[in-house]
Structure to design on (201 residues):
């Protein structure tokens, strides 16, 4: 007898504030390689709006510190795009790049294991859940929540929807419009802030 598949439960978007993201980063060591890496990968998803799989697929050559950009070669639908990241975020990424080189890793994924392999999706999700609990954040802390927060903050700053569309890698403007409508206006207003983010706050 055929049984119907149960669709995964969809939860409403829960935005993290800059203060909450900074609290997440404080749970990651500033000296241990894993902590430096995790601070950088959280920052890339939050400050550049990357999907978790896009972040995991990055290579060092995709990062351009001089221009403040990150190249996504294989986004959703196998589309490529270049996104921006602010100087504060790039500094954390550069620190991991330097530490990664010191570990002897010259090739492979940017955000690798200490042995140089690719990080698993499960590891990233479990890590974020764990440090969210340690930080005392009662919201659901997950990779896509960082992307939601990034989009909401851009909207709150008055960034044009077509620019947000390009940053997020949406094919159609209507997708971005629907995406932003899922965020409550009050939450968007509360998230307004300067692009000069201080991850140490």
């Amino acid at each position: 007898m055929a049984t119907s598949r149960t669709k995964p439960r969809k939860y409403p978007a829960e935005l993290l504030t800059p203060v909450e993201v900074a609290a997440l980063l404080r749970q990651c060591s500033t000296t241990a390689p894993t902590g430096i890496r995790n601070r950088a990968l959280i920052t890339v998803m939050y400050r550049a709006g990357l999907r978790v799989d896009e972040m995991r697929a990055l290579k060092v050559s995709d990062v351009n510190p001089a221009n403040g950009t990150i190249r996504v070669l294989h986004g959703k639908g196998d589309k490529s795009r270049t996104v921006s990241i602010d100087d504060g975020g790039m500094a954390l990424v550069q620190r991991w790049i330097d530490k990664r080189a010191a570990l002897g890793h010259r090739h492979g994924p940017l955000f690798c294991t200490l042995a140089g392999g690719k990080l698993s999706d499960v590891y990233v999700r479990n890590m974020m859940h764990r440090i969210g609990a340690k930080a005392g954040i009662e919201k659901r802390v997950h990779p896509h929540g960082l992307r939601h927060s990034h989009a909401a903050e851009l909207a709150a700053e008055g960034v044009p929807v077509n620019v947000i569309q390009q940053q997020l890698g949406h094919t159609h403007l209507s997708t971005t419009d629907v995406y932003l409508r899922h965020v409550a206006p009050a939450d968007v207003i509360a998230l307004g802030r300067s692009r000069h983010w201080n991850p140490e706050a």
User: Anything to note?
Assistant: Strands lie at 63-64, 69-72, 81-84.
